[in-house]
Write a structure and sequence with these properties.
Strands 2, 3, 6, 7 and 8 form a five-stranded antiparallel beta sheet that branches. Strands 1-9-4-5 form a four-stranded mixed beta sheet. It has six helices and nine strands; from the N terminus they run αααβαββαββαββββ. With 257 residues, it is an alpha+beta fold. It binds the ligand Nc1nc2c(c(=O)[nH]1)N[C@H]1C(S)=C(S)[C@@H](COP(=O)(O)O)O[C@H]1N2 and molybdenum atom. The site of the ligand Nc1nc2c(c(=O)[nH]1)N[C@H]1C(S)=C(S)[C@@H](COP(=O)(O)O)O[C@H]1N2 has 17 residues, from loops.
């Protein structure tokens, strides 16, 4: 059973910022790999580095161990700090793995959210269906691994409510996402069920502009920005580790507190 909710201290925000520095560090280490001498890399990984898959296996192993310990250590039901509305930035910063000229334009009228995996009902959801769910707002800090953070106000349905509605297996390990731009992050179930994890339709009280992920963005304040998918077109519940766009390129998978 989940414990009584406590508000996280400002220290938890710092932890998330630190997590972002750690991910940058892992990324640097992976890039460095190419520049290290074979001898140094052999020492580092303890395996024959001419065997690329063995090296990758060790690096993956380290990362997966980090995922498990992080999930076990952090108290996943504690709340991240929230802020007064006056602190929410209206003209929020845009980020994606591509530029503003390639933003997916989704037609809301024909939009469908597709479901698969360990769920009772795979019926696709229209925007109308989604908007009918109970909604709440939240003012939280978004932390991007690229070294910036910003407070914003998002509005949507608690992700737990949605998962319950579709009869998701809440004991499964992962929830994976597919986005209109080919992005595909995944999160652990405990973080999916966190009370501040929202499936959002709005930012700054307005329907998400295309650049912010129209029509659907997952807002998950306990995790770094890259774990917050925009332009979501499909999601699935699974026990098989799904990886992710940046995660498969060396970013730490858990990436949160
Ligand atoms: N589909 C999709 N979602 C995405 C990304 C992306 O490239 N594609 N980038 C992530 C990153 S790194 C960040 S920081 C945030 C940026 O969200 P914003 O543009 O609303 O600030 O979106 C996240 N979600
Ligand atoms: Mo980011």
């Amino acid at each position: 059973m989940r414990g009584i909710l406590q508000t996280r201290s400002a220290a938890d925000s710092k932890k998330l910022l630190r997590a972002s520095a750690q991910v940058r560090h892992i990324e640097r280490r992976l890039f460095l790999k190419q520049g290290l001498s074979l001898g140094a890399l052999t020492l580092l990984t303890g395996c024959d580095v001419t065997d690329t898959s063995a090296v990758q296996g060790v690096l993956d192993g380290i990362s997966r161990w980090n995922d498990r310990t992080q999930a076990a250590i952090f108290k996943l039901d504690r709340l991240m700090p929230t802020y007064p509305e006056s602190q929410a930035v209206k003209d929020f910063r845009f980020n994606a793995y591509f530029g503003q000229n390639q933003i997916p334009k989704i037609d809301g009228d024909s939009y469908k959210l597709n479901l698969s995996g360990l769920v009772d009902s795979r019926k696709p959801w229209t925007l109308q269906d989604l908007y009918a769910l109970p909604q709440q707002s939240q003012v939280t800090r978004h932390v991007c691994v690229e070294g910036w953070s910003m407070i914003g106000k998002w509005t949507g349905v608690p992700f737990r409510t949605f998962l319950e509605r579709i009869g998701a297996d809440l004991t499964a390990k992962y929830v994976g996402f597919e986005c209109a731009d080919g992005y595909y992050p995944s999160i652990d179930m405990a973080s999916a069920l966190h009370p501040q994890t929202l499936l959002t339709f709005k930012i700054s009280d307005e329907i998400l502009a295309p650049r912010y992920g129209y029509p659907l963005k997952l807002r998950i304040p306990t995790k770094l920005g890259f774990k917050n998918p925009k332009w979501i077109t499909a999601m699935y519940v699974t026990n098989r580790f799904p990886g992710g766009f940046w995660e498969d390129r060396g970013y730490n998978w858990f990436a949160g507190v």
